[in-house]
Specification:
Length: 210
């Protein structure tokens, strides 16, 4: 069943899943739709309203193939380490969906790489927090806006172990700019998305003190 009516804010916030298995690799994503999402992303907060953010939108097949290779290397390391873990802590559904995306990452029509100006390697945690938080809200806004338009996304970090190689492929000035993620973007197939299971609030909320 295709979702036809607009999502309510609650639906949008509770059903924006990491989509790996239900991406439509055959349907092109229009540049205007990506630009609408990016304009909404620009409304996000950033430290001192610095807006040190950049989004590299990759549609060229050859570059997606090169990035896909880096992503797959990271995925393989993750899978090998997860597979070495004993059951039942292993999330087989998650691993299967990672295997699926690893096999098809180069076919995803758009790869979006959110970036932020200024490397914080080796800086104090508060400096790093400020810099990363100057791109992550915008990137998440992009993903919510995409979901509202029938697109699926997933926050992924597998390629970051090869950030320098990705910078070379895309011409990103590595010395001055950090990549935060690689977000595969495609229209989705199949029925509506559902809220995921999460632990009770008591496992994470601390009123007035820890
Ligand atoms: C910091 C971060 C890094 C992530 N890295 C990856 C990744 O490299 N590959 C991947 O497939 N998913 C990655 N994810 C997606 C998570 O696995 C996903 O958000 C989580 O499993 C929840 O999935 P759900 O939205 O379906 O409930 C990452 C998420 C975050 C926030």
């Amino acid at each position: 069943m295709v979702e036809t009516r607009p999502l309510t804010p609650e639906e949008l916030l509770s059903t924006t899943r990491a989509v790996r298995r239900r991406l439509d690799f055959t349907r092109p994503v229009e540049r205007e739709v990506i630009e609408e999402c990016l304009r909404l992303a620009q409304q996000a907060p950033s430290g001192s309203n610095s807006q040190k953010w950049h989004f590299v939108v990759v549609t060229e097949a050859s570059r997606r193939a090169e990035l896909g290779e880096l992503w797959r290397r990271g995925a393989e390391r993750y899978l090998a380490s997860a597979e070495a873990n004993p059951l039942p802590s292993r999330d087989e559904r998650l691993l299967d969906s990672v295997r699926h995306l690893a096999a098809h990452i180069h076919e995803v029509p758009v790869h979006v790489i959110p970036c932020v100006n200024g490397r914080t390697d080796g800086e104090a945690a508060f400096v790093q927090a400020g810099r990363w938080a100057s791109i992550m809200p915008a990137a998440w806004s992009f993903m919510l806006a995409a979901r509202a338009r029938g697109l699926g996304t997933a926050w992924t970090s597998f390629h970051l172990a090869h950030e320098l190689d990705a910078a070379d492929i895309l011409g990103i000035p590595y010395e001055d700019v950090m990549q935060a993620a690689l977000i595969p973007v495609a229209y989705t197939v199949g029925g509506p998305f559902k809220p995921a299971r999460r632990n009770g609030l008591d496992t994470m909320v601390h009123w007035d003190s820890w």
